[in-house]
Design goal:
Layout (H helix, E strand, L loop, with lengths): L1 H10 L1 H27 L1 E3 L2 E3 L10 H10 L9 E6 L14 E5 L7 E11 L13 E3 L12 E6 L10 E3 L5 E10 L1 H5 L7 E3 L8
Helix pairs in contact: 2-3
Length: 206
């Protein structure tokens, strides 16, 4: 028996199987990524797969959706957007400060609630010691005089506007915006999340 195992190991069969499985895995990832890109709609830097979770999508679309968002409802029940770059196309980084500006009445319309979460570059929520990594419709966000709402995205606590602050990871990160029981404007595609704007750094006083 040991001789047979030695022969198999030395014959190249094992190496061939490993190479074949590796090639199959890489090919599958490539195909799923291509399908996900085809199904993804991007507006103001926010990407969404509106077909995710729908019956009759087909095996490839379902697999691509699960790879992008492992647990997701149909868009009509829970709308998901993700962003990994700011309006200028630069990767989001905890070394910078960003702002989301929602004009008056333009928070994600919904019949349940909405949330904004900062995650690591893979998509996992990160526990921060400086502040909360998520805000939602029940967070008591403060409105500006014109009714608009600004949300700051930065790793360090801001000198003010603490209620309107999402603590970001130190390195590269992503944002996820969700609306549960989304309103008609979201379902129809009329609603557009605002772009992630980088806040220019203030020069230190000389």
């Amino acid at each position: 028996m040991s001789g047979a195992l030695a022969w198999v190991a030395g014959s190249g069969i094992v190496q061939g199987l490993i190479m074949g499985l590796t090639l199959a895995f890489v090919t599958t990832v490539f195909v799923l990524n291509a399908v996900a890109r085809k199904e993804t709609e991007t507006v103001n830097g926010w990407s969404a797969i509106r077909a995710a979770g729908r019956p009759g999508n087909g095996l490839l679309v379902r697999a691509a959706s699960q790879k992008a968002l492992p647990v997701v409802n149909v868009f009509e029940e829970a709308a998901y957007w993700t962003a990994s770059r700011d309006l200028a196309g630069e990767r989001l980084s905890g070394e910078r400060v960003y702002r989301l500006h929602f004009p008056a009445g333009q928070l994600p319309p919904n019949d349940a609630f909405w949330s904004l979460t900062a995650t690591d570059s893979v998509g996992y929520q990160v526990n921060t010691t400086t502040g909360r990594a998520s805000v939602n419709g029940h967070s008591g966000l403060l409105a500006n005089a014109d009714g608009s709402i600004d949300i700051l995205l930065q790793s360090n606590p801001p000198p003010s506007a603490g209620l309107n602050w999402v603590a970001t990871p130190r390195g590269l990160f992503r944002l996820m915006l969700r609306a549960y029981s989304p309103g008609a404007a979201i379902v129809s595609g009329r609603y557009e999340p605002p772009p992630v704007l980088r806040v220019p750094s203030t020069p230190a006083p000389s």
